[in-house]
Specification:
By secondary structure, this protein is α/β, with parallel strands linked by helices. The protein has helices spanning 21-27, 33-54, 91-99, 134-145, 156-160, 162-166, 181-189, 257-267, 283-293; strands at 4-7, 13-16, 66-71, 105-110, 124-128, 151-154, 171-174, 196-198, 226-227, 230-231, 253-254, 271-274, 299-301.
Length: 314
């Protein structure tokens, strides 16, 4: 048999080869050493039978997870109104929902709009964190962790402050989560979440499936006609999160124009809000997208960098 880690009645954690157990127990002068050995061997047999049933040690199959994704309530500055909180839903949570395998149950709780699916005992809680909701996010995390429910934090704030966030959760996702989410779910199934999951390279935006808009009632938001056509920015302005640790390394990337047009058509609206960091990060690609949108007769909004003055035709 392979080496196994088993919990003994004497309270120690031992990594042992079962064939050597008898010799070890004989060297320990316990009066019930053979009883302990018998219990241990029965545990080994049951363990390996379970492993054979589930199909391997590295991945526990057949376990359906209940996953609750949370958008904490935003704080308001003196100049803010309540409209800030209901402006639009979190695309980050909608993306994670779309990446979750269909065998799992996933729901989104948005404290800003009162959307609550009442998933009382989730197997995993994911919270998106920005600086204006970080205190609330940490409080929510503490509530679930006190019940023994694992929590993973992600978002701009925790990526820029991983040390702080690591004290507030079971796991922290650093950077974009598309290539990390499946591993996080598998580790949750196997009860072996790691403290940190770090984006090794920016994900391919062409591989992201359509967002799970079915999980949120559109009537609760001012805008649900939002999407992104790119991520990142070619510039590293010191006031922007793109210059923070965890983000400055990522390259500016764009989605395929065809995918963007399909998203717009799926929305069935004539007004689109792009939430890109910099819509003209690649001017040639921006021209291509604008040309593709022109026949749709859209009104659209976006953010661009000041160097747009160098491209008067845009």
């Amino acid at each position: 048999m392979d080496k196994l880690t088993c919990s003994f009645p004497v309270g120690s954690m031992l990594s042992l080869n079962p064939l050597a157990v008898n010799q070890i127990f004989q060297s320990i002068n316990y009066p019930f050493n053979y009883l302990l050995l018998s219990l241990y061997m029965h545990s080994v047999i049951a363990y390996n039978a379970t492993i054979l049933f589930f199909g391997g040690r590295d991945k526990v199959k057949g376990i359906v997870l209940k996953i609750l994704l949370i958008a904490p309530k935003m704080s308001l500055r003196p100049m803010d109104s309540e409209f800030k909180r209901v402006m639009s839903p979190s695309l980050a949570l909608l993306t994670l929902a779309s990446l979750t395998p269909p065998e799992h149950e996933v729901a989104i709780l948005d404290e800003n709009t009162g959307i609550n699916p009442h998933m009382e005992t989730p197997d995993l809680v994911g919270i998106t964190v920005n600086v204006d909701n970080s205190d609330r996010a940490y409080a929510i995390s503490a509530q679930y962790r006190s019940k023994g429910i694992p929590v993973v934090l992600g978002g701009i704030h925790v990526t820029a402050n991983p040390g702080e966030a690591g004290q507030q959760a079971n796991a922290v996702c650093l950077g974009e989560a598309e290539d990390l989410w499946e591993t996080i779910l598998q580790d949750t199934q196997n009860h072996c979440l790691k403290p940190y999951y770090k984006m090794e390279s920016p994900p391919d935006l062409a591989k992201i499936p359509p967002l799970r808009w079915d999980l949120l009632p559109a009537s609760r938001y001012l805008y649900t006609n939002i999407l992104y056509s790119s991520r990142g920015c070619p510039f590293r302005c010191e006031f922007c999160y793109n210059s923070a640790d965890g983000y400055r390394e990522r390259a500016f990337r764009t989605r395929p124009v065809e995918d963007i047009i399909q998203d717009i058509q799926r929305m069935g609206t004539k007004h689109i809000m792009f939430i890109d960091d910099n819509f003209i990060g690649d001017p040639q690609r921006a021209r291509k997208l604008i040309r593709a949108m022109k026949p749709l007769g859209l009104t659209w909004n976006t953010a661009v960098s000041a160097n747009i003055l160098k491209f008067p035709r845009l």
